[in-house]
Input
Amino acid sequence: MVSRDDRVLHILKILNKHPRISVKRLIELTGESVSTMRRDLIVLEQSGKVKRTFGMVSLLENTNIEFASPFRYRTHVEEKKVICRLLARRVIKDNQALFIDPSTTTAYLPNYLSERQNVKVITDNLQFAIAANQMTNLNLFLTGGSLRPNSNSLLGNHTIQDIAMFRPQLAIVSCSTLDNTGAYIADMDQADVKIAMMKSARESILVADHTKFQSVNSDYIRLASFPAWSTIVTDRAPKDQFLKHMAALGVKVIYPGSK
Output
């Protein structure tokens, strides 16, 4: 049986190609029943991703809604794996200490750290912690905090206090969107944790797959402006204009095939 998250993801992929489409056509393309499609569209509408009108569905481009972690974990999986592979090969070194933020991208990172030795990780990311649990080459510190439903991360004042105890070499953080000026997110609690990690670390690394590069930004919480991050790691080459702008700011951009 296909899960609701997978069904919703399939609908969103169709809407990315056809931003306005009839419900009837969506049912034909997905093979869903009328009742299942109605329920899935209600979920998307309540999340602020689509609008339903008179048998039609429209994708809302400018949204600032943060999807639940289980849903985001299943989206753009290959892109996230490319980013994690680049982090392990070109950014993270033996004997380093680092913050790992509460993102679904970094949740895939443990699979690529098997060759690194004596890496100390401070994180509030439960998915990362579970994946790294059996790895003897990693020393893991899990922060305290409040577990919010469907976030797979620990958040709040206790998390911030624990982060302030450390001064690692790196903070690896993600965002929801970014443009030429900075990176953004739609969730205040997540933003507080990421900003605290960046403040305490000696150097900050931004991870973002290619879908997060936007000229018109809908996410309303600015994590920081460039060059707050020394490096951006992404899964494919950004536009030349962006690369030139980052080079002028002294920000390195790492992607497959980059120097």
Observations:
- The chain has a mean pLDDT of 89.
- Residues 187 and 200 are 20 Å apart (CA to CA).
